[in-house]
Design brief:
Blueprint lengths: L17 E4 L4 E4 L5 E2 L10 E2 H5 L13 E5 L5 E4 L16 E4 L10 E2 L6 H13 L8 H4 L6 E34 L2 E29 L21 E2 L9 E4 L4 H21 L6 E30 L2 E8 L5 E3 L5 H22 L8
Parallel strand pairs: 8-13, 9-12
Antiparallel strand pairs: 1-2, 2-3, 4-13, 5-6, 5-7, 6-12, 8-11, 9-10, 9-13, 13-14, 14-15
């Protein structure tokens, strides 16, 4: 949603508004420019998953905001202070933004990673990303506006667990037989591959820490790559001061659903790791069974710059990781440029085929 800031904190020197300054990692006064360190105390704890699922969760605002608004299109829910009015959703550009009352229990974030990439750096990343695009309309740089670029704290579940995987498979050992074969052109050496299969089994034990599952439904599903990678060693105890100048989304993916997603991803990762444990040079009939233990979680907020820009009536999205600066986005294709490239390739292949054709006369 179109949000700038939260309920105000004021400078002790000039009483002007304070906001988080990503370039210096401190609060900065918008009046005198003075800086102030965020005094956040507390220990970042992992919570037992099963115990948490069986209990009621505490409710309350994440910071100083007192109202919630939910997008009727993408269902993103963002907390707002009283003085801010949401005019459209910053995730999908929809104007269907409605007041929302949270009646369900809600896990409160206990840790976050503050923004270390500021708006200027995010805008430069967007410009570099546009310049690097191929097969895009020429006027895209002028049409793609960054007026709606917003810094948003996105909710994530960070899961930790131990996984024991038992696997069975057929390990293949390949050897080659060499023999001479007579052809019209004379004797030719042929190598034939033969695979010997042997059943095998094994197990492995792995420990995972802070496996991240995005708990937002507002972010585009196609933007799910490196932009979502964070260094969770940078997590700090939660303090609402970090949110000054930014907005914060409430999670839409519930804890139980988030764990099911993490369980699937970790199971797939374990199965891939098992492939490296199987002897031989090839495998078949690989089967794995996973046992999860000591499952823990944290509810964390992670920084993301978000821009939803419109080009010829269609909304495209762009993300900048607020910690690493990694970028990802969607953009329209230029049908004209693609057609020209395809035509050029077809003409080149036609010329090569013509020159190599046996009927083509070669110069003496």
């Amino acid at each position: 949603m179109s949000i700038e800031g939260r309920s105000k904190r004021v400078c002790v020197q000039c009483h002007a508004e304070l906001q988080w300054d990503a370039t210096v990692g401190q609060l900065r006064c918008l009046g005198c420019g003075g800086k102030q360190v965020v005094d956040a105390e507390g220990i970042i704890l992992d919570h037992d998953l099963q115990e948490a699922l069986s209990q009621r969760r505490p409710r309350g605002p994440m910071g100083s905001g007192t109202r919630l608004c939910r997008c009727g299109t993408c269902l993103a829910t963002v907390e707002l202070p009283d003085e801010v009015q949401a005019t459209h959703c910053e995730f999908c550009r929809s104007t269907l933004v409605l007041p929302y009352s949270a009646t369900e229990d809600h896990y409160q974030p206990e840790s976050l990673i503050p923004f270390s990439i500021d708006r200027t750096a995010a805008e430069r990343a967007f410009a570099r990303w546009l310049r690097a695009l191929w097969f895009r309309p020429r006027n895209l740089r002028h049409a793609a506006s960054l007026q709606q670029l917003h810094g948003v704290y996105i909710p994530y579940w960070a899961f930790g667990c131990e996984v024991t995987t038992h696997w069975t498979a057929d390990a293949g050992y390949t050897h080659f037989e060499t023999k001479q074969v007579q052809t019209d052109r004379g004797a030719v050496t042929q190598r034939t591959a033969h695979t010997r299969w042997e059943p095998c089994r094994g197990e492995r034990h792995d420990v995972y820490e802070d496996h991240l599952i995005c708990a937002s439904r507002g972010l585009a599903k196609e933007l799910s790559g490196e932009v979502h990678r964070f260094d969770t060693s940078g997590l700090l105890p939660f303090a609402s001061e970090y949110l000054l100048g930014f907005s914060a989304e409430r999670y839409a993916v519930e804890l139980r659903e988030g764990w099911q997603m993490a369980r699937t991803e970790l199971g797939n990762l374990q199965s891939t790791r098992c492939l490296h444990d199987i002897p031989g040079d090839t495998q078949r009939n690989v089967r794995t069974s996973h046992q999860f233990a000591r499952v823990r979680f944290k509810h964390v907020l992670l920084p993301m710059w978000i821009a939803a820009y419109e080009y010829r009536g269609k909304v495209h999205r762009f993300l900048v990781n607020g910690q690493t600066g990694e970028v990802e986005g969607t953009a329209p294709h230029s049908a004209g440029k693609i057609a020209l490239v395809v035509l050029a390739v077809v003409m080149l292949l036609a010329i090569v085929f013509y020159l190599l054709s046996p009927q083509h006369p070669r110069p003496i």
